[in-house]
C-alpha cells in the first residue's frame, strides 16, 4: 500500500511538472514587457505589426525620428501578407494580443475587423484634419474614424515598359481594342505582350479590380446596389466585362507561357528588362522594381485599364493601408503621438526622404516631389483630370474571399467569364451572410 | 492484484489529461460551434445553416473527388510499393542498411519543405524533372500547372514522402514471421513466389492493415502538401476538402469552417470504420 501511494505521488508530480512547464512558457514574455513599461525612466516601447511584403524603409526612418524626439521606441513585428496575414490579425484581435499599432488594408478588409471594438476612435484628434476625406471614408465605421494613411495612394491598372513602346512605335491605348492591337504587334516582335503571374494568385485579380473605373464612371450606384444585393457581376454587363477581359487576353494568346509557374518576382523582372511589355498590377510594385532594378524603374509607365469609350479612359485608385491604434493598448497615448508625428509635415519629410511615393499622398498639403517615378506621374494625369474612381473594395464592405482563384480560372480559360462571375456572386453571397449585411 | 490495476491507471493520468484538454474538449466544442455564426469572441446559434452553406460551396464536388482520388491512390501505392521494397529489404541484400535509411529519409523532412522543393523541381521549363526528361527526349508536362494533372503530381510526392513509414512498418511485420514457415514451404517444394503469396503476404496482414489505415486516414485529411505545392489551384482544380475548409477559415468564416471540419470528421469515420472492420476480420493469427 505504501508503495502504491509513492508511485501515485510520482505520477501527480509528473503531471504538475508538465503544467509548470506550460505555465513557464507564457510567463517569460510577460515579465519581459513588464520590465520595459514598468520603469518610467526607460523609454516606452510600442509594438507595431506589419506584413512582410510592404517596404518599411519610410516607416523605420520615421520610427527613428520618434525615438530621438519622444523617447518612444518602436518594435516592428512581421506577419505574412494576404489572407494568411488576415488570419493572424483576426486571431490576435480576438485573443486580445494585438500590438499597439497595426498596419492593415483600409476599406472592406478593415471593416471586417470590427474596428469599433478593437481600435481607438481618432475622429476627435486635431491631426486628423490633415487626412483627406477619401481616406477617412475608407476607415470610418458609424461615427468613428479609426486610422491614418500609412503610405501613399496607389493605382491598379497597366504597368508598361516605355522603351518597348518606343521601340515598336506604339501609343498608350485608350480603348480595349487598341490595347489588343498593341499586344498583337508586341507579340509579332517576339516579346510577351501581357504578364500573367498566376503562381502568386492574388496578382490575377488586378484586371478585374482595376476595371472598376469603367463600371463606376458609367454606373456610380453599382457599389451600393452590389452591397444591397441588387446588382450582380454576372447580370451586369459592364461589371462582367472585367471577367471577359481576363479571358480575352487568353483567347488572343497574349499571356506568357507557364502562367501558373510565373511568380510576382518573375513578373517584375520580365517587365523591367523589357522581356514583356505589360503587367496588369498595382503601382506599389514600383517600390519593388526600384529595389531590384533601380536603373530601369523610370522605364516603366502606367495607364488605366481601357474600356470601349476613348473619351472615358480613367484609372482605378486604391486607398492606402491604414495605421490603427489598438483600443486596449496600455501605451495608447504614445501610439497616438506616433501617428500624429507620422502625418505631420516633419514626419512626412522624413518618410519621403526614405521612400518614394507610388501615387499621391492621402494627406493635405503634401505634394509629390518632382523626382517621382514616371508611372506615378502618368497616374497623376488621371488624378488631375478627375478621371479616377476608387476600387470596389473601398466602396463596399463585400469582397469575396475566393476571387483570386476564380480570376485564375477565368484567366486560364478553364471556365467562361459568365460562370466565373456567377461563382464570384455566390462567393460574395456567403460573405454577406457571414457579415450579416442587410438585404441578404 | 487490485492495487496493481489502479496503479496502472495513475500512470495513464498525465497523458489522459493532455488528451482530454487538447483533443477531446476541442472536438466536442467544435460540434457546438459548427452550428453557430462565430467571430471567435461572439457566437450566434444558426442551426444547420452552416452545413447547408458548406454543401453549396461551388468547389465542394471537386474537393470530394480529389480527396478520394488522393486518399485511395496514395494508400494503394504506398502499400504496393512498400511491400515490394520491404521484401527486397528483408532479403540478403548487402547494402540494405543504406537503402533502408535512404527510403526512410524523406519522412524526416518537413512536409512544407518537401512541397516547396518539389514545386521548384516540377517547374515546367526550368524544373529539374522536366530538364532531365528533356535530355532523354521527353517533353515533360506542366506537373502543377495543368489542372487535370496537378492533384496526381501532388499525390506522387506524398507517396515519395510517406513510403518510408509504410516500408518500415511492413519490414517489421515481415521480420516477425518465424523462419519455420519458410523452411516448411521449402520442404514442400515451393519456390520464392509461393513463399511470398502463401506466407509473407497473409502473415504480414496486420502490418499491411496498419499501413492501409494510416495512409487512408492521412490521405483523407491531407492538407499541408497540397497547400504548399498548388494552394488548391490552378483555380480550384486541386482543392481537397481540407483546403476548402482552410480557405473558409482564412476568410474569417469560423462557424462555417468548423462545420466543414465536423463533416470531414464524420466522413473520415464513415469511410475508415467499415474498412477497418473488414480488414481486421481477415487477419490471420500467427
Present the secondary structure layout.
The complex is a heterodimer of chains A (440) and B (286).
Chain A: H1 2-38, E1 44-51, H2 57-70, E2 72-79, H3 82-94, E3 101-104, H4 108-111, H5 115-118, H6 133-138, E4 140-141, E5 144-145, E6 148-149, E7 154-161, H7 162-168, H8 176-188, E8 192-194, H9 206-209, H10 212-216, H11 222-227, H12 237-251, H13 264-272, E9 276-282, H14 285-292, E10 300-303, E11 315-318, E12 322-325, H15 332-343, H16 345-354, H17 374-384, E13 388-390, H18 403-411, H19 417-434
Helix pairs in contact in A: 2-16, 12-19, 18-19
Chain B: H1 2-33, E1 36-38, E2 43-45, H2 49-56, H3 60-90, H4 96-104, H5 111-121, H6 128-135, H7 150-175, H8 179-187, H9 192-203, H10 205-220, H11 224-229, H12 241-250, H13 254-281
Helix pairs in contact in B: 1-13, 2-13, 3-7, 3-10, 3-12, 7-10, 10-13, 12-13
Largest sheet of chain A: 6 strands, mixed
CATH class of the largest domain in chain A: Alpha Beta
Low-confidence stretches of chain B: none
Helix content of chain A: 40-55%
Mean pLDDT across every amino acid position of chain B: 88
List keywords for this structure.
heterodimer; A: 440 residues; alpha/beta; D-Maltodextrin-Binding Protein, domain 2; 2 domains; 6-stranded mixed sheet; 5-stranded mixed sheet; 13 strands; 47% helix; B: 286 residues; mainly alpha; MetI-like fold; two-stranded antiparallel ribbon; 2 strands; globular
Amino acid at each position: 500500500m505504501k508503495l502504491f501511494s509513492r508511485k501515485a505521488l510520482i505520477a501527480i508530480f509528473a503531471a504538475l511538472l508538465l503544467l509548470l512547464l506550460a505555465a513557464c512558457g507564457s510567463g517569460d514574455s510577460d515579465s519581459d514587457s513588464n520590465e520595459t513599461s514598468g520603469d518610467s525612466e526607460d523609454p516606452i516601447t510600442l509594438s507595431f505589426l506589419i506584413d512582410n511584403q510592404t517596404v518599411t524603409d519610410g516607416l523605420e526612418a520615421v520610427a527613428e525620428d520618434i525615438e530621438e524626439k519622444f523617447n518612444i521606441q518602436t518594435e516592428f513585428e512581421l506577419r505574412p501578407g494576404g489572407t494568411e496575414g488576415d488570419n493572424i490579425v483576426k486571431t490576435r484581435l480576438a485573443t486580445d494580443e494585438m500590438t499597439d499599432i497595426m498596419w492593415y488594408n483600409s476599406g472592406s478588409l478593415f471593416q471586417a475587423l470590427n474596428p469599433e471594438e478593437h481600435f481607438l476612435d481618432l475622429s476627435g484628434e486635431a491631426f486628423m484634419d490633415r487626412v483627406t476625406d477619401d481616406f477617412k471614408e475608407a476607415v470610418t465605421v458609424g461615427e468613428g474614424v479609426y486610422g491614418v494613411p500609412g503610405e501613399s495612394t496607389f493605382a491598379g491598372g497597366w504597368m508598361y515598359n516605355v522603351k518597348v513602346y518606343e521601340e515598336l512605335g506604339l501609343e498608350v491605348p485608350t480603348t480595349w481594342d487598341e490595347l489588343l492591337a498593341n499586344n498583337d504587334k508586341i507579340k509579332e516582335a517576339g516579346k510577351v505582350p501581357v504578364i500573367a503571374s498566376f503562381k502568386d494568385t492574388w496578382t490575377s485579380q488586378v484586371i478585374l479590380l482595376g476595371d472598376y473605373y469603367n463600371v463606376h464612371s458609367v454606373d456610380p450606384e453599382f457599389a451600393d446596389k452590389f452591397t444591397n444585393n441588387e446588382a450582380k457581376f454576372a447580370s451586369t454587363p459592364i461589371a462582367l466585362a472585367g471577367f471577359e477581359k481576363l479571358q480575352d487576353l487568353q483567347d488572343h494568346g497574349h499571356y506568357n507561357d507557364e502562367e501558373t509557374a510565373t511568380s510576382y518576382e518573375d513578373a517584375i523582372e520580365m517587365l523591367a528588362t523589357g522581356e514583356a511589355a505589360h503587367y496588369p498590377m498595382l503601382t506599389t510594385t514600383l517600390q519593388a522594381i526600384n529595389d531590384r532594378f533601380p536603373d530601369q524603374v523610370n522605364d516603366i509607365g502606367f495607364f488605366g485599364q481601357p474600356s470601349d469609350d476613348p473619351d472615358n479612359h480613367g484609372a482605378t485608385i486604391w486607398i492606402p493601408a491604414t495605421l490603427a491604434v489598438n483600443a486596449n493598448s496600455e501605451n495608447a497615448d504614445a501610439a497616438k503621438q506616433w501617428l500624429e508625428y507620422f502625418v505631420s509635415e516633419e514626419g512626412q519629410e522624413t518618410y519621403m526622404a526614405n521612400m518614394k511615393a507610388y501615387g499621391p499622398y492621402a494627406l493635405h498639403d503634401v505634394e509629390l516631389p518632382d523626382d517621382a517615378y514616371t508611372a506615378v506621374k502618368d497616374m497623376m494625369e488621371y488624378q488631375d483630370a478627375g478621371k479616377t474612381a476608387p476600387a470596389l473594395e473601398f466602396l463596399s464592405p463585400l469582397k469575396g474571399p475566393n476571387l483570386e482563384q476564380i480570376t485564375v480560372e477565368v484567366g486560364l480559360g478553364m471556365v467562361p467569364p459568365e460562370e466565373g462571375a456567377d461563382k464570384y456572386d455566390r462567393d460574395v453571397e456567403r460573405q454577406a451572410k457571414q457579415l450579416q449585411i442587410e438585404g441578404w | 492484484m487490485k492495487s496493481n490495476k489502479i496503479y496502472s491507471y495513475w500512470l495513464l493520468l498525465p497523458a489522459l489529461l493532455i488528451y482530454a484538454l487538447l483533443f477531446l474538449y476541442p472536438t466536442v466544442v467544435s460540434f457546438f460551434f459548427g452550428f453557430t455564426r462565430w467571430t471567435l469572441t461572439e457566437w450566434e446559434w444558426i442551426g444547420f445553416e452552416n452545413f447547408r452553406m458548406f454543401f453549396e460551396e461551388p468547389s465542394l464536388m471537386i474537393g470530394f473527388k480529389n480527396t478520394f482520388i488522393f486518399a485511395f491512390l496514395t494508400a494503394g501505392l504506398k502499400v504496393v510499393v512498400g511491400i515490394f521494397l520491404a521484401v527486397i529489404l528483408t532479403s540478403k541484400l548487402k547494402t540494405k542498411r543504406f537503402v533502408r535509411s535512404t527510403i526512410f529519409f524523406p519522412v524526416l523532412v518537413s512536409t512544407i519543405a518537401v512541397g516547396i522543393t518539389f514545386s521548384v523541381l516540377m517547374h515546367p521549363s526550368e524544373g529539374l524533372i522536366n530538364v532531365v526528361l528533356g535530355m532523354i527526349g521527353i517533353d515533360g508536362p506542366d506537373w502543377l500547372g495543368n489542372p487535370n494533372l496537378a492533384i496526381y503530381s501532388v499525390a506522387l510526392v506524398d507517396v515519395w514522402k510517406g513510403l518510408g513509414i509504410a516500408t518500415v512498418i511492413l519490414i517489421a511485420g515481415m521480420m516477425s514471421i518465424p523462419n519455420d514457415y519458410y523452411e516448411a514451404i521449402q520442404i514442400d517444394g515451393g519456390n520464392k513466389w509461393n513463399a511470398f503469396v502463401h506466407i509473407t503476404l497473409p502473415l504480414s496482414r496486420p502490418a499491411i492493415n496498419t499501413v492501409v489505415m494510416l495512409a487512408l486516414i492521412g490521405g483523407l485529411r491531407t492538407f499541408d502538401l497540397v497547400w504548399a505545392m498548388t494552394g488548391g489551384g490552378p483555380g480550384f482544380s486541386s482543392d481537397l476538402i481540407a483546403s476548402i475548409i482552410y480557405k473558409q477559415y482564412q476568410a474569417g468564416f469560423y462557424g462555417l469552417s468548423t462545420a466543414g471540419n465536423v463533416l470531414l470528421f464524420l466522413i473520415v469515420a464513415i469511410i475508415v470504420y467499415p474498412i477497418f472492420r473488414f480488414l481486421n476480420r481477415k487477419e490471420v493469427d500467427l
